[in-house]
Amino acid sequence: MNKEETIDYLRERGIEVEVTEHQAVYNMAELDSVDLPYPDRDAKNLFVRDDKKRNYYLISIKDDKRIDLKEFRKAQGLRSLSFASADDLAKFMDLTPGSVSPLGILNDEERKVTFFLDEAFKGGLVGVHPNDNTATIWLDADALMHIVEEHGNEARYVDLG
Question: Are strands 125-128 and 43-50 parallel, antiparallel or unpaired?
């Protein structure tokens, strides 16, 4: 799904979204130059895989946090983790680097990607790309989790400190 299709998909399901259009951003440092209405609710997204390339995970954390993948792996009972390739990103979520978003999971036809969302977002807004890095959409974190689960992917809140 492209940006418009993603936004329409959410709205068709009764999910309220607020859209902030902006210039293309490819990393969190570039996003700092964008005037966002809820900068403390923006998510940073990490697409990782296990060492056997069998399991893929999208981890969305508050943009001011850092994550230790070794500690995360241990806490979740996972195999060793490393960043997935751009090819894997395209294959599983039909996204390109710089556009990584939990909403890309809606393109995961094989339901291979497990989604982890920082518990700090629970009960409030979260800002993510609508599968395109020229906008950020704001939606309820619980609604995001529901949409991912409804699609058939596993989704869990995790305490990331």
Answer: unpaired
The per-residue pLDDT for range 116-149, each reduced to its tens digit, is 999 999 999 999 999 998 999 999 999 999 999 9
What pairs with residue 19 in β-bridges?
Answer: 137
Which run of H or of E encompasses 141? helix 141-151
- For the stretch 99-116, pLDDT in tens is 999 999 999 999 999 999
What is the rounded CA–CA span in Å between residue 21 and residue 135? 4
Phi, psi of 128 (to 5 degrees): -140, 160
**DSSP character for 42?**
B
Instruction: Catalogue the E-assigned strands of the chain.
Output: 18-21, 43-50, 56-62, 81-83, 113-118, 125-128, 135-140, 155-158
Beta strand 113-118 with 135-140: parallel, antiparallel or unpaired?
Answer: unpaired
pTM, rounded to two decimals: 0.93
For the beta carbon of residue 124, count every other beta carbon within 10 angstroms.
13
